[in-house]
Amino acid sequence: MLSLRRGAITAVTDRLEGLVRLEVDGRPCVAYPGITGPVALGDQVLVNVQAVELALGSGGFDVLYANLTRGLGLDPEAGAHVMKLPYTPLQLAVRHAEEGGTSLASLNGLPIVCCSLHSQVGPAAAGLGAGRRVAYVQVPGGALPVSLSDTARALRERGLVEATVAVGACLEGDVACVSTAAAFAWAAQEGFDAVICSIGPGIVGTASPWGHGGLSVAEAVVTARALGGRPVLAVRYSEGDPRERHRGLSHHTQAVLTLAGDVEVGWPEGLEVPERLERVRAVDVSGWEDACSGLPLSHMGR
Length: 302
Description:
five-stranded mixed beta barrel; CATH 2.40.50; 302 residues; 8 helices; 17 strands; globular; Rossmann fold; eight-stranded parallel beta sheet; single chain; alpha/beta; 28% strand
């Protein structure tokens, strides 16, 4: 069941591209004006409160579900007919890049950095550096709206990412694609130099090694390889995580490797390589602090 509450907007704290942070009856909330329409002080709204009520780690705010004051009778996107979130109470039509068709048969070696955590996207883009045309492709497994990501906004502002692509159930990218394969083909056809593929913020996790959102990038690795791209896996590794399952080579990465098979891994030069990693390319990571300066590196309080 949806957990909805009616209230009034009592504060607007931040208006960003694609995202508004506000308060409903004094409680933090986010709104996506591209989906539910514009917001203003005093608007009567419905908010989804379930994540907060469940005290989820990524649920520190409510989400505006409908604006009863100025969000009714909104027109669909012109020319759109493919639905995002089809047959759910939030279905909406969005134009998809592949609706015009494509004749592309191969990615021709397009480098695709596959990240199982959204927090890896900023450092990956900084590592690729300015002067390259980079597309960010977001797949389901964490937050669905691309516009929730402060990292994606910061990378656009710094010129480290040129375009964002929302795949499948994901929303609010510069471009929408039905599948990961279509997103990679679009990037190759548009002449991008590289792709960073990741889930959105707020990874889904369970007690099962196969029940976490990061597994979405296993499909991305397999797809990139099958289409003639060059997938590179960003490994989740930590020597400081208090949780044993994520210390060293995370069980998330091990699960991705099991499903994705042979894939190239970038590894910090001079750091001992775990036995589980096979096709490793040593990378000089000196100067990473300067490269990442000003980018969001803290996620979910860590």
